[in-house]
Amino acid sequence: MTVQDLRKALRQNVRDYGMYIALFAIMAIFTITTQGVFLSSRNIANLINQTGYIAVLAVGMTLVIVIRHIDLSVGFLAGFLGAIAAIAMVYWHFPVFVAIPFVLVLGVLAGLATAFLVAQLGIPSFVASLAGWLIYRGALLLVTVKTGTIVIPDPIFNAIGNGFIPDLPVGASFLPGVHKLTLLLGAAAVVWSIIGQIKSRRSKKAYGFEVIPADMFVIKMIFLSALIAVISWNLAGYNGLSWTLVVVLVVVAIYDFISTRTVLGRHIYAVGGNPEAAELSGISVKKITFVVFGSMGLLTALSGILFASRLQSATIKAGELFELDSIAAAYIGGVSAAGGVGKVIGSLVGALVYMSLTSGMNLMGTDIALQYVMRGAVLAAAVIFDVTTRKAKK
Amino acid sequence: MDTPILEMRGITKIFPGVRALSDVSFRVQEREIHCLVGENGAGKSTLMKVLSGVHPHGSYEGEILFAGKTQTFHGIADSEKAGIAIIYQELALVPEMTVYENIFLGNEIRKGFTVDWNETIRRATEMLSKVRLSVNPSTKVKDLGVGKQQLVEIAKALSRDVKLLILDEPTAALNEDDCDNLLGLIRGLKEHGVTCIMISHKLREVIRIADRVTVLRDGSTICTLDASKGEVSEPVLIKHMVGRSIDNIYPTRRHDRSDENVLEVRNWSAYAPKLGRTIIKDVNLRVNRGEIVGLAGLMGSGRTELAHSIFGNPDGYRLEGELLVRGERKHFRGPEDAIRAGVAYATEDRKGNGLILIQDVKQNITLANLAEVARRGIMDDHAEVKVADGYKTALRIRTPSLEQAVSNLSGGNQQKVSVAKWLFVKPHLLFLDEPTRGIDVGAKYEIYTIMNDLVERGMSIVMISSELPEILGMSDRIYVVSSGRIAGELPVGEATQEKIMTLATS
């Protein structure tokens, strides 16, 4: 393969890999400007735990935007539900394993309430969820006003946002200071991703579908494997895999599976691509709207739990701007406002890009005002890139 | 008469992987009506986009001479300035604005810093009388029918002192009356010194109106025919368009009809709450196994609404009456129920509410029956590809791959995808709403052949069509719909165009 071929292949696939390149570039820049601190195990672990509560929101928001809606209420709803979780455990003495499902159910109900306004009454989702934004903001103030910050003493609950998975019970002499289970899981992920990709390539080829050239494929696999290896090695060097990362990975895996491999996923993207055609194909747009907003509510509750757990408390300002951060992450991840386009994995990467910026600039001690400007610029650049590459493809 | 107002020489336009136009020459004389015909994908629209600057100078090879000058248009604004206006199939009006606002949109008459509305209305009235449209200029465009909207578009073009007017399939969405009116108007424009280029698939129209006809095929000019020399006739045009002659536009089929009832509606009425009026009134209709029933009528007569009301009522009409599918009384709560009962409906507006343009061929084909290619809610990709590939072969859908987005297919192939999608739900009864609108002769023939094949195998088809020859050529029985009622039922043997039109306008 010549350099020219590589260039051509890159140009053709730049749309698919653009985000990864951006993430890589941002990480490289911050690694240089912070003399390596950015890539330290400790910072990466922190970064992932900070990204968690935005990432789960971005995943849900992806589907909401795919069906041509928006949900502004998720920020303060997450804050409010986090506070409810705290209250349930501290004042009502709910055990943690009751409090969490309880809050998740509340989240679903809140999502369905928004869906009712949108799907049943035909209110634009922007307005319906703006009302939610105001209501949940008030509700959060209401439940925290007397006590102020509610400190959560439950160690299990707090582990979700701060804890790490246990290590294998092998002797300290073997690879000291390294988290063995994390390494093992990383290795498993590498093997699994290689097998999965080879399988999918084979079946695509069998149907005569277009596949990327073999050498590109090998490069892509090496790159991906190396990425997973580096990340797991990096994490293993600190405390290992955090529970937050486990939660995020499970959520992303489930949502990716649903959106790409199931009938429900097809229906969601069909409704986004052309609601009238979907309706006339026997798909209930109403039902899909309820499902998507319900799932958004569920993930909002999860986000609230992650955040409260991370702070080990419920605060008056919890959830502020989460909605806009997650919307930004989804757009950076390649979701289209025109509907029907957007990948769950893309939004995860979008969230990582967005939070890397925050984390990197914090490390550099960048002024907060400038941070907002930078984040805005990256969002604009991502959308410009998306729009222009889409045009070029036509 | 023989001074060319437009001459396009050696136009070659290449898209990535496709040679859309190769060395096309095209001459249009001043004040003539020049029709441009060709199958879908022949390059008509591309040629017009080159002419109007949508494909800017430099993105193609060749030369454009207009009004005696070599032109290098870099956008529509340039070609408009030179006096070229193009009216697309999809109308470019703002529905919420009034007629006069639309006519002068982007070309406002100013008085100082403000718009001179009185002068605007006066000039708009003048333009409307030029296009013989008697509506109040303060009417909102959304309240006009498609035919009148088209006239507003033309008025808009005239208000800009257009020298060359390009009409892309202007009659595709019009009923016969509006068609006649429009064609008459286009003839009248000659008197105003306007030259017209008209793209059309309706050959009879072309024959009626054209001074000269240029035929394109596969991106090349095949010939230019002169009507005054008697060179233009339907067989000749078809021969040049497809490169072979189609002797019979409507293929024949075996007629072994049974009296087995597939669908019956009795005293069927529908009230549309959004419009505040009853749109279907006391309709009685039956469809037998293995027959094609034609639903004729004018645009807006309620044919599509009737089909919707039977197909699970997605628009939320209030229904009255009885619906029987294969002898059983049914109440559909949505299209899903109708599909399950074996009723399918391929929409009239493929791009609007028929297909999901951004999705690929196989996703569109399987959409209405995903359960069949899934196990416990999880997609079986293997089964899906097999199904889609089967229909691709059976219906001869021309696409580079099953993973091609349907927006990239030609109109005829999109229609085939839409038909495939509805065949996959394995219906007993298939509604086809304007199945051949905007598709070329060759593809029409294929659609007709598919329809015949289906009814021969025992399916029943209800075909809604505004093209009377098609209704007469394909149906076993014809219902004529007029203002939401069945104005009459005709066996095809007794039906003539005149009889249908009489009933349709009753």
Attribute tags:
heterodimer, A: 394 residues, mainly alpha, ABC transporter involved in vitamin B12 uptake, BtuC, 2 domains, B: 506 residues, alpha/beta, Rossmann fold, 3 domains, six-stranded mixed β-sheet, 17 helices, 24 strands, 32% helix, globular
Q: Can you identify the CATH superfamily of the largest domain in chain B?
A: P-loop containing nucleotide triphosphate hydrolases
| Unreliable parts of chain B | none
Round the Cα radius of gyration of chain B to an integer and report it.
Answer: 24 Å
Strand order in the sheet with the most strands of chain B: 6-9-10-3-11-12
**Biggest beta sheet summary of chain A:** 2 strands, antiparallel
Secondary structure: helix percent of chain A: over 70%
Question: What is the distance, rounded to the nearest whole angstrom, between the alpha carbons of the first and last residues of chain B?
Answer: 44 Å
Structural class of chain A: mainly alpha
Unreliable segments of 5+ consecutive residues of chain A: none
Number of helices of chain B: 17
Strand content of chain B is: 25-35%
- Per the CATH scheme, the topology name of the largest domain in chain A is ABC transporter involved in vitamin B12 uptake, BtuC
- The radius of gyration computed from the alpha-carbon positions of chain A, rounded to a whole number of angstroms, is 22 Å
Summed over residues and divided by their number, the pLDDT of chain A gives a mean of 90
What does this structure look like?
The complex is a heterodimer of chains A (394) and B (506). Chain A has helices spanning 3-33, 41-66, 74-90, 96-120, 125-144, 155-162, 180-206, 214-236, 243-261, 263-273, 275-280, 285-311, 322-332, 344-364, 368-393; strands at residues 150-151, 313-314. With 394 residues, chain A is mainly alpha-helical. Chain A folds into two domains: 35-163 and 242-393, ABC transporter involved in vitamin B12 uptake, BtuC (Orthogonal Bundle), CATH 1.10.3470; 173-241. In chain A, helix 4 packs antiparallel against helix 5, helix 4 runs antiparallel to helix 12 and helix 10 packs across helix 12 (285-311). Chain A starts with a helix and ends with a helix. Chain B folds into three domains: 4-242, 3-Layer(aba) Sandwich (Rossmann fold); 256-342 and 427-506, Rossmann fold; 350-426, no CATH class.
